[in-house]
Specification:
Strand content: 5-15%
Number of helices: 13
Helix content: 40-55%
Distance between the termini: 44 Å
Radius of gyration: 21 Å
Number of domains: 2
Number of strands: 10
Shape: globular
CATH architecture of the largest domain: 3-Layer(aba) Sandwich
CATH class of the largest domain: Alpha Beta
């Protein structure tokens, strides 16, 4: 059976924005909790598996010690945005430490100083099986030798070795080289000035004009130093990353029902949706999914959803 490897912070932030304003009857924000569990059920039914490992980012970062500018995303956040992030962080911790373990998910992985990406890469290196990584991060294309990479948003893209070769003309191993040369804008890793992904790929494939300025920058002493320095920032996993072996899940449907009652997730307990959860927990996936399959509501405005017991912030 396929194992889903979840970039948990990515799924959590999707839920944070897609379900913004969701609260329970006690006034506690539950947007991350509800959206996260909804997406996990949806993915499990879609890929017909309940073998799942959740990988979480550490607050500490070894890469920041190597390069202080790493992921240094300067933002002028409002007080409301800061408070929204604080509430989301509380829900992240609840999921990791309490809710997922109580339901019976026994593979919640985090290592101080390391990112979810490192843990995902280490799993690919050390576990045996068929894997699909759920993420929005293209850096993980370097792992395609041992998995597929699925991007739920915005276009439900499944990246494979063949598709990478067709769309970019390179292999997973060469993807690391691309990032070394071009840098990574999302992680604030600067590459060689004026060199983007397209030019980096042209250089790797020996299609770049050797008399041009871009080529000269890449092969210069300064360019080579940037490429070598970036290797430790963009390569996965970072040295020292370790993960335990896969632990079989021990789902507890009573605990799940208690959690739903605690946070007013009444829609999960409705007959049709509860049957989906029971199918997921049992792992008895039919060759064809039944008509009762739960719809992925992560990108549907709250006003367009029905059957959710909640209070919405005005």
């Amino acid at each position: 059976m396929t194992t889903l490897l979840i970039d948990s912070n990515y799924i959590g932030h999707q839920a944070r924005f897609s379900h913004k304003g969701l609260k329970d009857s006690k006034g506690r924000p539950t947007n991350v909790l509800y959206g996260f569990l909804s997406r996990i059920l949806f993915l499990g039914l879609m890929f017909k598996t309940n073998h799942i490992a959740f990988c979480w980012d550490s607050k500490k970062s070894i890469r920041k010690l190597i390069f202080p500018g790493y992921k240094n995303r300067t933002q002028n956040l409002t007080e409301e945005e800061i408070e929204d992030r604080r509430k989301a962080d509380i829900q992240f911790r609840l999921l990791e430490k309490e809710i997922l373990p109580a339901i019976g998910f026994n593979n919640n992985l985090k290592q101080s100083g390391y990112e979810a990406d490192d843990l995902l890469a280490e799993i690919i290196c050390s576990w045996i099986g068929e894997f699909i990584i759920i993420t929005g991060d293209v850096d993980l294309y370097q792992l395609l030798y041992g998995c597929r990479v699925y991007h739920p948003s915005p276009k439900n893209i499944m990246m494979t070795i063949g598709k990478l070769k067709k769309e970019y003309g390179i292999s997973p191993a060469q993807w690391i080289r691309v990032k070394q040369i071009a840098g990574c804008t999302s992680d604030k890793v600067p590459g060689i000035e004026g060199v983007g992904i397209k030019k980096a790929i042209q250089y790797i494939n020996k299609e770049l004009d050797t008399e041009g300025k871009i080529y000269s920058k890449i092969v210069s002493k300064a360019g080579k130093e940037i490429i070598e320095f970036n290797k430790q920032l963009v390569s996965l996993p970072l040295r020292g990353c370790n993960v335990p072996g896969y632990q079989m899940n021990s789902f507890n449907i009573r605990n799940f029902a208690k959690i739903c009652s605690e946070y007013d997730f009444d829609s999960f307990l409705e007959e049709i949706n509860f049957e989906n959860w029971k199918t997921f927990f049992s792992g008895s996936f039919a060759d064809k999914m039944p008509e009762r399959k739960m719809k992925d509501v992560s990108d549907v405005p709250i006003s367009g959803r029905r059957g959710l017991s909640r209070k919405v912030v005005k």
